[in-house]
Amino acid sequence: MYDVIIIGGGPAGLNAAMLLGRSRRKVVVFDSGEPRNRWSQSMNGFLSSDGMNPRDFIQKGRAELAKYAVELVDVVVESATYTKGEFVVNDVDGNVYRSRKLLLATGLKDKLPELEGVEELYGKSVHHCPYCDGWESRDKAIAVYGRERKGIGQALAMKNWSDDVTLYTDGTDSLRRDDLELLERNGVKVQKEKIMRLEGKNGMLQYIVLSNGEKRPQQAMFFSLGAKQQSDLGEQLGCEFTNKGVIKTRRLQHSNIPGLFVAGDAARDMQMVIVAAAEGAKAGVAINMELQQEDRK
Ligand SMILES: Cc1cc2nc3c(=O)[nH]c(=O)nc-3n(C[C@H](O)[C@H](O)[C@H](O)COP(=O)(O)OP(=O)(O)OC[C@H]3O[C@@H](n4cnc5c(N)ncnc54)[C@H](O)[C@@H]3O)c2cc1C
Protein backbone atom coordinates (compact mmCIF):
# COMPACT_ATOMS: atom_id res chain seq x y z
CA MET A 1 0.00 0.00 0.00
CA TYR A 2 1.52 3.31 -1.11
CA ASP A 3 0.65 6.65 0.40
CA VAL A 4 0.49 8.09 -3.08
CA ILE A 5 0.50 6.77 -6.62
CA ILE A 6 1.45 9.33 -9.24
CA ILE A 7 0.61 8.51 -12.85
CA GLY A 8 2.76 10.58 -15.21
CA GLY A 9 6.41 11.44 -14.73
CA GLY A 10 6.56 14.78 -16.54
CA PRO A 11 7.27 18.07 -14.73
CA ALA A 12 3.95 17.94 -12.84
CA GLY A 13 4.30 14.37 -11.59
CA LEU A 14 7.99 14.67 -10.72
CA ASN A 15 7.57 17.92 -8.80
CA ALA A 16 4.70 16.42 -6.82
CA ALA A 17 6.89 13.38 -6.12
CA MET A 18 9.63 15.65 -4.82
CA LEU A 19 7.37 17.42 -2.33
CA LEU A 20 5.85 14.11 -1.19
CA GLY A 21 9.27 12.44 -0.96
CA ARG A 22 10.48 15.34 1.15
CA SER A 23 7.40 14.82 3.34
CA ARG A 24 8.58 11.24 3.91
CA ARG A 25 5.69 9.69 2.00
CA LYS A 26 5.87 6.33 0.24
CA VAL A 27 5.38 7.23 -3.39
CA VAL A 28 5.49 5.49 -6.75
CA VAL A 29 5.57 7.35 -10.08
CA PHE A 30 4.51 5.49 -13.23
CA ASP A 31 5.63 6.88 -16.54
CA SER A 32 5.27 5.80 -20.16
CA GLY A 33 8.06 8.10 -21.38
CA GLU A 34 6.06 10.31 -23.73
CA PRO A 35 6.09 13.87 -22.35
CA ARG A 36 4.19 16.34 -24.50
CA ASN A 37 7.27 18.36 -25.48
CA ARG A 38 9.37 15.36 -26.55
CA TRP A 39 9.29 16.70 -30.13
CA SER A 40 11.20 19.77 -29.06
CA GLN A 41 14.93 20.40 -28.60
CA SER A 42 14.57 23.23 -26.10
CA MET A 43 12.35 24.01 -23.17
CA ASN A 44 11.89 27.77 -23.06
CA GLY A 45 10.45 30.15 -20.50
CA PHE A 46 11.50 28.27 -17.37
CA LEU A 47 13.61 30.53 -15.18
CA SER A 48 17.06 28.98 -14.53
CA SER A 49 16.57 26.33 -17.24
CA ASP A 50 15.59 28.45 -20.26
CA GLY A 51 16.53 26.59 -23.45
CA MET A 52 17.39 23.31 -21.73
CA ASN A 53 16.72 20.08 -23.64
CA PRO A 54 13.39 18.74 -22.28
CA ARG A 55 14.81 15.21 -21.96
CA ASP A 56 17.76 16.49 -19.90
CA PHE A 57 15.30 18.36 -17.70
CA ILE A 58 13.35 15.17 -16.98
CA GLN A 59 16.54 13.17 -16.37
CA LYS A 60 17.78 15.84 -13.95
CA GLY A 61 14.45 15.75 -12.11
CA ARG A 62 14.49 11.97 -11.86
CA ALA A 63 18.07 12.03 -10.52
CA GLU A 64 17.09 14.59 -7.87
CA LEU A 65 14.42 12.20 -6.59
CA ALA A 66 16.93 9.43 -5.87
CA LYS A 67 17.42 10.48 -2.26
CA TYR A 68 13.72 10.23 -1.39
CA ALA A 69 11.43 7.20 -0.93
CA VAL A 70 10.13 7.64 -4.45
CA GLU A 71 9.98 4.68 -6.82
CA LEU A 72 10.08 5.41 -10.53
CA VAL A 73 8.50 2.71 -12.68
CA ASP A 74 8.61 3.03 -16.46
CA VAL A 75 5.36 1.40 -17.50
CA VAL A 76 1.97 2.32 -18.96
CA VAL A 77 -0.90 2.35 -16.49
CA GLU A 78 -3.93 0.79 -18.08
CA SER A 79 -6.67 1.29 -15.53
CA ALA A 80 -7.43 2.91 -12.20
CA THR A 81 -10.40 2.62 -9.87
CA TYR A 82 -11.43 4.20 -6.59
CA THR A 83 -13.48 2.49 -3.91
CA LYS A 84 -13.89 3.41 -0.27
CA GLY A 85 -10.76 5.46 0.21
CA GLU A 86 -8.48 3.19 -1.80
CA PHE A 87 -7.14 3.53 -5.33
CA VAL A 88 -6.30 0.41 -7.31
CA VAL A 89 -4.06 0.82 -10.33
CA ASN A 90 -3.21 -1.80 -12.97
CA ASP A 91 -0.27 -1.56 -15.31
CA VAL A 92 -0.06 -3.15 -18.77
CA ASP A 93 2.06 -6.00 -17.42
CA GLY A 94 -0.75 -7.10 -15.12
CA ASN A 95 0.74 -5.74 -11.89
CA VAL A 96 -1.66 -4.27 -9.34
CA TYR A 97 -0.83 -1.38 -6.99
CA ARG A 98 -2.83 0.23 -4.18
CA SER A 99 -2.66 3.68 -2.61
CA ARG A 100 -4.47 6.07 -0.32
CA LYS A 101 -4.19 9.02 -2.71
CA LEU A 102 -3.78 9.28 -6.46
CA LEU A 103 -2.32 12.06 -8.58
CA LEU A 104 -3.02 12.12 -12.30
CA ALA A 105 -0.29 14.01 -14.15
CA THR A 106 -0.70 12.31 -17.51
CA GLY A 107 -0.63 15.42 -19.71
CA LEU A 108 -2.10 16.10 -23.13
CA LYS A 109 -1.27 15.29 -26.72
CA ASP A 110 -1.58 17.77 -29.54
CA LYS A 111 -3.64 17.58 -32.69
CA LEU A 112 -1.31 18.36 -35.60
CA PRO A 113 -2.40 19.85 -38.93
CA GLU A 114 -2.95 17.06 -41.45
CA LEU A 115 -0.17 18.18 -43.76
CA GLU A 116 2.48 16.10 -45.48
CA GLY A 117 5.87 16.80 -43.91
CA VAL A 118 4.57 18.23 -40.63
CA GLU A 119 5.95 15.53 -38.30
CA GLU A 120 9.60 16.10 -39.31
CA LEU A 121 9.26 19.82 -38.59
CA TYR A 122 7.06 19.75 -35.48
CA GLY A 123 8.82 21.10 -32.39
CA LYS A 124 11.68 22.58 -34.44
CA SER A 125 10.05 25.09 -36.79
CA VAL A 126 6.36 24.16 -36.59
CA HIS A 127 4.88 25.06 -33.21
CA HIS A 128 1.62 25.64 -31.39
CA CYS A 129 2.76 27.88 -28.51
CA PRO A 130 4.11 31.38 -29.20
CA TYR A 131 5.22 31.80 -25.59
CA CYS A 132 7.37 28.66 -25.95
CA ASP A 133 8.77 29.24 -29.44
CA GLY A 134 7.84 32.76 -30.58
CA TRP A 135 11.17 34.27 -29.52
CA GLU A 136 13.14 31.72 -31.56
CA SER A 137 10.92 32.59 -34.55
CA ARG A 138 11.28 36.36 -34.16
CA ASP A 139 11.57 38.38 -37.37
CA LYS A 140 11.18 35.21 -39.46
CA ALA A 141 8.65 34.68 -42.26
CA ILE A 142 5.92 33.13 -40.09
CA ALA A 143 3.00 31.12 -41.46
CA VAL A 144 -0.08 30.62 -39.30
CA TYR A 145 -2.20 27.59 -40.14
CA GLY A 146 -5.94 27.89 -39.54
CA ARG A 147 -8.77 26.57 -41.66
CA GLU A 148 -11.95 28.62 -42.02
CA ARG A 149 -11.78 31.44 -39.41
CA LYS A 150 -9.74 29.52 -36.83
CA GLY A 151 -6.35 31.14 -37.42
CA ILE A 152 -7.35 34.80 -37.14
CA GLY A 153 -6.47 35.27 -33.47
CA GLN A 154 -3.15 33.50 -33.69
CA ALA A 155 -2.17 35.31 -36.90
CA LEU A 156 -2.80 38.68 -35.21
CA ALA A 157 -0.93 37.52 -32.09
CA MET A 158 2.14 36.47 -34.08
CA LYS A 159 2.65 40.09 -35.18
CA ASN A 160 4.13 40.43 -31.70
CA TRP A 161 7.10 38.37 -32.90
CA SER A 162 7.43 39.24 -36.60
CA ASP A 163 6.22 41.78 -39.16
CA ASP A 164 6.07 39.01 -41.75
CA VAL A 165 2.98 36.93 -40.92
CA THR A 166 0.78 35.04 -43.41
CA LEU A 167 -2.44 33.25 -42.51
CA TYR A 168 -2.99 30.04 -44.51
CA THR A 169 -6.62 28.92 -44.63
CA ASP A 170 -5.74 25.72 -46.57
CA GLY A 171 -8.39 25.70 -49.28
CA THR A 172 -11.17 27.19 -47.14
CA ASP A 173 -12.84 30.52 -47.87
CA SER A 174 -14.80 31.47 -44.73
CA LEU A 175 -13.07 34.73 -43.82
CA ARG A 176 -15.61 37.56 -43.75
CA ARG A 177 -15.01 40.99 -45.14
CA ASP A 178 -14.46 42.46 -41.64
CA ASP A 179 -11.95 39.64 -40.89
CA LEU A 180 -10.02 40.48 -44.04
CA GLU A 181 -10.07 44.19 -43.20
CA LEU A 182 -8.84 43.50 -39.65
CA LEU A 183 -6.03 41.28 -40.92
CA GLU A 184 -5.03 43.79 -43.58
CA ARG A 185 -5.09 46.71 -41.10
CA ASN A 186 -2.69 44.73 -38.90
CA GLY A 187 -0.40 43.76 -41.75
CA VAL A 188 -1.29 40.03 -41.87
CA LYS A 189 -1.22 38.51 -45.36
CA VAL A 190 -3.79 35.85 -46.28
CA GLN A 191 -3.29 32.78 -48.48
CA LYS A 192 -6.42 30.70 -49.19
CA GLU A 193 -4.96 28.10 -51.57
CA LYS A 194 -4.91 24.48 -50.42
CA ILE A 195 -1.60 23.29 -48.98
CA MET A 196 -0.04 20.23 -50.64
CA ARG A 197 2.95 19.75 -48.34
CA LEU A 198 5.57 21.36 -46.13
CA GLU A 199 9.21 21.18 -47.21
CA GLY A 200 12.21 21.73 -44.99
CA LYS A 201 15.71 20.62 -44.08
CA ASN A 202 16.96 19.34 -40.70
CA GLY A 203 13.62 20.15 -39.12
CA MET A 204 13.58 23.72 -40.41
CA LEU A 205 10.63 24.75 -42.60
CA GLN A 206 11.68 26.21 -45.95
CA TYR A 207 8.61 26.15 -48.20
CA ILE A 208 4.87 25.70 -48.11
CA VAL A 209 3.90 24.06 -51.38
CA LEU A 210 0.41 24.99 -52.58
CA SER A 211 -1.98 23.00 -54.78
CA ASN A 212 -1.40 25.44 -57.66
CA GLY A 213 2.28 24.40 -57.60
CA GLU A 214 3.51 27.64 -56.00
CA LYS A 215 6.31 27.24 -53.40
CA ARG A 216 6.06 29.96 -50.78
CA PRO A 217 9.19 30.57 -48.67
CA GLN A 218 8.35 30.35 -44.95
CA GLN A 219 10.66 29.83 -41.97
CA ALA A 220 8.24 28.94 -39.18
CA MET A 221 4.64 27.84 -38.81
CA PHE A 222 2.28 28.17 -35.86
CA PHE A 223 -1.09 26.48 -35.43
CA SER A 224 -3.68 26.07 -32.72
CA LEU A 225 -5.83 22.99 -33.17
CA GLY A 226 -6.26 22.03 -29.52
CA ALA A 227 -5.13 18.96 -27.62
CA LYS A 228 -6.66 15.93 -25.98
CA GLN A 229 -5.93 13.93 -22.85
CA GLN A 230 -2.98 11.57 -23.24
CA SER A 231 -4.74 8.91 -21.18
CA ASP A 232 -8.38 8.04 -20.47
CA LEU A 233 -7.70 7.46 -16.76
CA GLY A 234 -9.55 10.66 -15.79
CA GLU A 235 -12.64 9.37 -17.56
CA GLN A 236 -12.27 5.91 -15.98
CA LEU A 237 -12.18 7.51 -12.53
CA GLY A 238 -15.23 9.71 -13.19
CA CYS A 239 -13.51 13.11 -13.29
CA GLU A 240 -15.37 16.22 -14.38
CA PHE A 241 -14.02 17.82 -17.54
CA THR A 242 -14.28 21.35 -18.93
CA ASN A 243 -15.65 21.84 -22.44
CA LYS A 244 -12.01 22.18 -23.57
CA GLY A 245 -11.29 18.57 -22.52
CA VAL A 246 -9.18 19.26 -19.43
CA ILE A 247 -10.04 18.03 -15.94
CA LYS A 248 -11.73 20.48 -13.60
CA THR A 249 -9.69 21.11 -10.47
CA ARG A 250 -10.08 23.26 -7.38
CA ARG A 251 -7.49 25.56 -5.80
CA LEU A 252 -4.99 22.92 -4.66
CA GLN A 253 -5.50 20.54 -7.59
CA HIS A 254 -8.34 18.57 -5.95
CA SER A 255 -10.65 16.87 -8.44
CA ASN A 256 -14.32 15.99 -7.84
CA ILE A 257 -13.26 12.52 -6.60
CA PRO A 258 -12.11 12.34 -2.94
CA GLY A 259 -8.36 11.73 -2.69
CA LEU A 260 -7.80 12.20 -6.42
CA PHE A 261 -5.68 15.15 -7.52
CA VAL A 262 -4.82 16.30 -11.03
CA ALA A 263 -1.83 18.46 -11.99
CA GLY A 264 -0.14 19.76 -15.13
CA ASP A 265 -1.60 20.01 -18.61
CA ALA A 266 -4.25 17.37 -17.88
CA ALA A 267 -5.82 19.88 -15.46
CA ARG A 268 -7.31 23.28 -16.13
CA ASP A 269 -4.69 26.05 -16.34
CA MET A 270 -2.01 27.49 -18.56
CA GLN A 271 -0.05 24.76 -20.35
CA MET A 272 3.63 25.37 -19.69
CA VAL A 273 6.35 23.39 -17.94
CA ILE A 274 6.77 25.87 -15.10
CA VAL A 275 3.00 25.91 -14.45
CA ALA A 276 2.83 22.09 -14.58
CA ALA A 277 5.70 21.83 -12.08
CA ALA A 278 4.05 24.43 -9.81
CA GLU A 279 0.75 22.54 -9.90
CA GLY A 280 2.64 19.35 -9.03
CA ALA A 281 4.14 21.13 -6.02
CA LYS A 282 0.69 22.39 -4.95
CA ALA A 283 -0.80 18.92 -5.30
CA GLY A 284 2.08 17.37 -3.35
CA VAL A 285 1.53 19.70 -0.42
CA ALA A 286 -2.27 19.32 -0.53
CA ILE A 287 -2.02 15.52 -0.62
CA ASN A 288 0.38 15.49 2.32
CA MET A 289 -1.92 17.79 4.31
CA GLU A 290 -4.87 15.44 3.68
CA LEU A 291 -2.83 12.44 4.84
CA GLN A 292 -1.74 14.36 7.95
CA GLN A 293 -5.37 15.14 8.80
CA GLU A 294 -6.44 11.52 8.31
CA ASP A 295 -3.60 10.17 10.48
CA ARG A 296 -4.05 12.66 13.34
CA LYS A 297 -5.08 10.87 16.56
C1 LIG B 1 6.38 20.71 -29.19
C2 LIG B 1 6.12 21.31 -27.82
C3 LIG B 1 7.01 22.23 -27.30
C4 LIG B 1 6.79 22.78 -26.05
N1 LIG B 1 7.67 23.70 -25.59
C5 LIG B 1 7.50 24.23 -24.37
C6 LIG B 1 8.43 25.19 -23.88
O1 LIG B 1 9.38 25.58 -24.57
N2 LIG B 1 8.20 25.70 -22.64
C7 LIG B 1 7.14 25.32 -21.87
O2 LIG B 1 7.01 25.81 -20.75
N3 LIG B 1 6.25 24.41 -22.32
C8 LIG B 1 6.41 23.85 -23.54
N4 LIG B 1 5.50 22.93 -24.01
C9 LIG B 1 4.38 22.53 -23.13
C10 LIG B 1 4.88 21.45 -22.16
O3 LIG B 1 5.32 20.33 -22.89
C11 LIG B 1 3.79 21.04 -21.18
O4 LIG B 1 3.21 22.17 -20.57
C12 LIG B 1 4.36 20.12 -20.08
O5 LIG B 1 5.02 19.03 -20.66
C13 LIG B 1 3.24 19.65 -19.16
O6 LIG B 1 3.79 18.80 -18.19
P1 LIG B 1 2.92 17.59 -17.58
O7 LIG B 1 3.77 17.01 -16.52
O8 LIG B 1 1.56 18.03 -17.27
O9 LIG B 1 2.75 16.57 -18.81
P2 LIG B 1 3.82 15.82 -19.71
O10 LIG B 1 5.11 16.53 -19.72
O11 LIG B 1 3.15 15.58 -21.01
O12 LIG B 1 4.03 14.45 -18.95
C14 LIG B 1 3.02 13.49 -18.83
C15 LIG B 1 3.68 12.14 -18.62
O13 LIG B 1 2.66 11.19 -18.31
C16 LIG B 1 2.97 9.98 -18.95
N5 LIG B 1 1.74 9.20 -19.10
C17 LIG B 1 0.60 9.53 -19.76
N6 LIG B 1 -0.30 8.56 -19.67
C18 LIG B 1 0.27 7.57 -18.92
C19 LIG B 1 -0.17 6.29 -18.48
N7 LIG B 1 -1.37 5.83 -18.79
N8 LIG B 1 0.69 5.54 -17.76
C20 LIG B 1 1.93 5.99 -17.44
N9 LIG B 1 2.39 7.21 -17.82
C21 LIG B 1 1.56 7.99 -18.56
C22 LIG B 1 3.58 10.41 -20.29
O14 LIG B 1 4.40 9.41 -20.85
C23 LIG B 1 4.38 11.64 -19.86
O15 LIG B 1 5.73 11.33 -19.57
C24 LIG B 1 5.68 22.38 -25.27
C25 LIG B 1 4.78 21.43 -25.79
C26 LIG B 1 5.00 20.90 -27.05
C27 LIG B 1 4.03 19.92 -27.62
Automatic annotation (TrEMBL):
PANTHER family: THIOREDOXIN REDUCTASE 1-RELATED-RELATED. Residues 2-280 form the FAD/NAD(P)-binding domain. InterPro entries: FAD/NAD-bd_sf, FAD/NAD-binding_dom, Ferredoxin-NADP_redctase_2. It comes from the Bacteria. GO terms for molecular function: oxidoreductase activity. Keywords: Flavoprotein, Oxidoreductase. Pfam families: Pyr_redox_2. This is Pyridine nucleotide-disulfide oxidoreductase.
